[in-house]
Amino acid sequence: MYKNLDECLNQIYKLSAVNIEPMGNTGAVINHLQGVSGGGSGLTQAEHHANAAMIESQISGCLNSKLLVAVVECEYGIYDNLHYLANVLVANNICDDVVFATDMLRHIYSFGKLPRRIWIMDKYDLHDMTFARRRDKIKNHLANWEQQARFKLQTEFRQKGIISH
Questions:
Q1: End-to-end CA distance of the chain
Q2: What percent of the chain has pLDDT over 90?
């Protein structure tokens, strides 16, 4: 059981980005002799990954919307559906151009690191205020979608006992 939704999603998407490395008998014996134990939870690495996969499928089932799943995944560092989000932004007339929307989403989800604000402004010939308005418009829509997703997940996960509060 996780304490809250943030801890749960953070762990789930962190584990989904990690590969399972098999540990042979020699490695297990050496770790046992050195006193290295698992994580203290009593679960093996494979069990942690299975748990994460189960909760990921529950996320998809609960949200029942590719858009909301994409927003949650991007928020926690899984950028597989970034282009899908950009297409939704263009389809809803939030942005004019898919490439611009993708660059802006990368900028937003990397917390302004890559691509940098100046690079986007130069590439699309935007003034500072125009850039800020467009970024804020996209961020507001993303925040609304994320809020919808979080509300659904929190309610569902509390009922199923995945999170405590």
A1: 10
A2: 71
